[in-house]
Every structure is written in C-alpha cells, then in structure tokens.
Amino acid sequence: MTATIENPNYRYPARSKGRRGPNLEKAGWIFMRASGVVLIVLIFGHLAYNLLWTPGGIHAIDFGFVGGKLAQPFWQWWDVLMLWLAILHGSNGMRTIVNDYVHQPRLRTIALGAIAAAAAILIILGTLITFTFDPCPAGADAALLPEFCASR
C-alpha cells in the first residue's frame, strides 16, 4: 500500500521557473551556513579568551576587564563582527519563519518590517556602544574607576 502526498500548493513559492533576477532565497540560505560557521569561530574565540586564557577565569571578569578589553581595537572589531553576524543570522532566520507561516500579505509585510527595524536598531546601538564606550570618563571619582584608568 502506497500513500501519495498531495501538493500543498504554497501561496508564496520560493522561486518559480519563469522568474529572472537574483535568487534571494538561495543567497539567504548560503548566508545562514557561512555566518553560522564564522559565528562558531567568533563565539568560541570569545569564550576561550574570557574564560580560559584570562588569569582568574570567570572570576576575573568585571567592569575593569570589559573596559580594558573594549579599549583595544582588535576586540572592538571582534565583538562588533560577532554582534552584526548574530543579529543578521537571527533576523534572517526569523524572516524565513515569517515567510513560511504568515500567509496574509499585510501581516507578513508588517512582521518583516518589524524584524528589519529591530535588527537595524540593535546593530546601530550595539556598534555605537562598542566604539564609544569609555571606562574612564572625565571628571569621575577616581575611587570608582578601574585600576587602568589611573595611568591616564
């Protein structure tokens, strides 16, 4: 006895045969695989540095540690790249879910717009915070500042 599965007749096919131009669904699929591999390297590098290579391990992580790390351009770019890829990777995944399950065009447009707006706001704010963070603000009480601020 064999069973035949009916064609679900999707409302929004990923790509029809007669369509021309770039295949954005394929680009999104490739981006998810590539960004996932890069994110694994970035996240495990981040964890290894913070937890294994830093003397004191997790107990050494405090405001001073983070401030000192974010004062170095290498770690600023490492963290920003990790932030950008994580947000774009997650947003692309949410876009895929919306495309699969939301079939009302207006609601779908609103959901995709909300995802894009949230991603843009998070990327802008995260980047701004990473590059403008100053652990040694001028005029602050020296007793409240990390040890490395005394050398300034």
Written description of the protein model:
This protein is mostly helical. The chain has a single domain, classed as 3 helical TM bundles of succinate and fumarate reductases (Up-down Bundle), CATH 1.20.1300. It is 62% helix and 0% strand. The protein is built from 4 helices and no strands. The chain has helices at 24-53, 63-70, 73-101, 105-132. The chain is elongated and about 75 Å long. The termini are far apart. The model has no long low-confidence stretch (mean pLDDT 87). It comes from Agrococcus terreus. This is Succinate dehydrogenase. InterPro entries: SQR/QFR_C/D, SuccDH_FuR_B_TM-su.
Q: What does the main sheet amount to?
A: none
Number of helices: 4
Question: Whole-number average pLDDT?
Answer: 87
The number of distinct structural domains comes to 1
Protein name: Succinate dehydrogenase
Transmembrane segments: 27-49, 75-98, 110-133
Subcellular location: Membrane
Pfam families: Sdh_cyt (PF01127)
Which features characterize this protein?
152 residues; mainly alpha; 3 helical TM bundles of succinate and fumarate reductases; 62% helix; elongated
Topology:
Layout (H helix, E strand, L loop, with lengths): L23 H30 L9 H8 L2 H29 L3 H28 L20
Helix pairs in contact: 1-3, 3-4
Keywords: Heme, Iron, Membrane, Metal-binding, Transmembrane, Transmembrane helix
Protein name: Succinate dehydrogenase
Pfam families: Sdh_cyt
